[in-house]
Amino acid sequence: MYVKDLLLTAPTKVDQLIVARTAAEEMDHYQKIASLAGEIGVDTSFLLSIPNQKRYLEAFRGVIRSWEDFAAFGFLIDRVGRFQLEEFLDCSYLPLQRILPEILKEGVGHIGFGTNQVAELVLKGGEQKENIQKSIDF
Question: What is the DSSP string of the chain?
């Protein structure tokens, strides 16, 4: 959703590393969950070829093209993902229970980064504040 447009255009070199790390962590989360699904006979590989526009959740149908969109996604959408995953922390399926703490820890990092970026953009005011508001509204 964002690597192609943001990896090389993030505001700083550190931000570029954060985009790359976030993408790597999200791919790792998919691989961990897909592996668990595979252990019970469910093949999820087809999910990798579904175009954004046909994804099940509206939040994953678009493309994140701006730094403001990336910040808003971390601030809001990753937070929703956290709430959903927390519902499974004490589930009866032990393999899932074992991998969730690490996934959630990384997700909390994504949320924190998004929250901090949104706050910084709001405090800058002017066009940056307007742009982050548009991203949040979207």
Answer: --HHHHTTTSSSHHHHHHHHHHHHHHHHHHHHHHHHHHHTT---GGGGGS-GGG-SSGGGSS---SHHHHHHIIIIIHHHHHHHHHTTTT-S-HHHHHHHHHHHHHHHHHHHHHHHHHHHHHHH-HHHHHHHHHHHH-
Domains within the chain, CATH numbers bracketed: 3-137 (1.20.1260.10)
CA 58 to chain centre: 14
Is pTM beyond 0.85? Reply is yes
φ, ψ at 57 (rounded to 5°): -95, 135
pLDDT per residue over 86-138, tens digit each?
A: 999 999 999 999 999 999 999 999 999 999 999 999 999 999 999 999 999 98
For the chain, the distance separating the N- and C-terminal CA atoms, rounded to the nearest angstrom, is: 15
